[in-house]
Amino acid sequence: MSVSGIIFANLHDQYIPQLTTTRTLASVPFGCRYRLIDFPLSSFANSGISDVHVITQTNYHSLMDHLGSGKDWDLARRVGGLKLYPPFITAYSSNEAQIYSTRLSALKNLSMLINRSTDDYIVLADCDGICNVDINDLVSDHIKNGADITFAIKRVSLTPEKAKHSSIVVSSPDGELIDMMRDPKFISGEVDVDIHIWVATRSYLNRVITEAIRHDYDNFVKDIVTRNVGKHNYRVYRFDGYYAKITSIEDYFACNMSLLSDKSVRDALFNVHGRPIVTKVRNSTPTEYLPGSSVENSMIADGCVIEGRVENSIIFRGVKIGKGTVVKNSILFQDTQTGRGASLNCVITDKSVFIRDGVHLSGHPSIPFCIAKEKVL
């Protein structure tokens, strides 16, 4: 049995445009030192999947810098390893026509790769979910049931607004997929949702992609899954660990803040035995806490200089907090600098933002105040 992985880096960039104008969703920073792609990529690496393909679309320079050769995930290999795939655009085709917008159109771009693959199974993952999944258990469940595709699902409580960005799954007690509703309206309450981690038998996936190319299908759920429910062997795998879906800047802010307020969330993500979440290693100097500084209930990366007060905040590498400045309930990306006597509350700063002396900024947990990369305020 051999397994490879495919990660979709750009599929959900529209969810948080405040942070994805210059980067993919996959490379959005999270939790003081991580990127969103670290979660699916680490799940693959922890399960022994050594052949991983990352499909990109636009704005992937920061993603390339983060992933490098894949050595931090032990994926720098002579055979297989980590590979990045930009859109396939020929010299005589329209760029817009060739840049994918859905999972199925992205797979059609990789049809030759999948056709030539010798792996028995392929695991597909997006980057909009934050979770730590045992991929080996998922694949074993898929093989045991002889499934064509197995969809990882999670029981969650949805509001109608959240349901608009979810795929609702209906299954039988024995795990057979009965129906999947993509982005439904007017649904709320406790439901099963697709967490966008699938395992497919490679030969079946290859047939699906060939059919999609022949009939110009574009959407995997609408054009493939819902057409073939009951005809093909679709199964579900129930994931019982922590799962959070990023569909808005409010979701992103809340997920980061939950790391500070709930130890069980930190443990479910970062303290699972045998399944560490790995990220790019940077050798920086330790953070310097100058006289008069204070820190309470915060996560602070290395390479920072703290002169002011930090409360309930997440501070990335190289951030400098000026004397007399108060940072509360905020997320400051790499190399943000504040002057003296400033105050920030419910603020998200992108990389290399500079806050002048005495500036006061405040958002709200439901509407965090976002500052674009390299802005000076």
Structure in words:
The structure is a single chain. With 377 residues, the protein is an alpha/beta fold. The protein folds into 2 domains: 3-270, Alpha-Beta Complex (Spore Coat Polysaccharide Biosynthesis Protein SpsA, Chain A), CATH 3.90.550.10; 288-371, Hexapeptide repeat proteins (UDP N-Acetylglucosamine Acyltransferase, domain 1, 3 Solenoid). 25% of the residues lie in helices and 28% in strands. It contains 12 helices and 28 strands. It has helices at residues 17-20, 38-46, 61-67, 95-98, 103-109, 111-116, 135-144, 160-163, 202-215, 220-228, 249-261, 263-270, and strands spanning 3-8, 29-30, 34-35, 51-55, 81-85, 121-125, 129-130, 149-158, 167-171, 177-182, 189-201, 234-238, 244-245, 288-289, 294-296, 299-300, 305-306, 309-311, 314-315, 320-321, 326-328, 331-332, 337-338, 343-345, 347-349, 354-355, 360-362, 369-371. The mean pLDDT is 93.
Summary, kept brief:
The protein is an alpha/beta fold and 377 residues long. The protein folds into 2 domains: 3-270, Spore Coat Polysaccharide Biosynthesis Protein SpsA, Chain A (Alpha-Beta Complex); 288-371, Hexapeptide repeat proteins (UDP N-Acetylglucosamine Acyltransferase, domain 1).
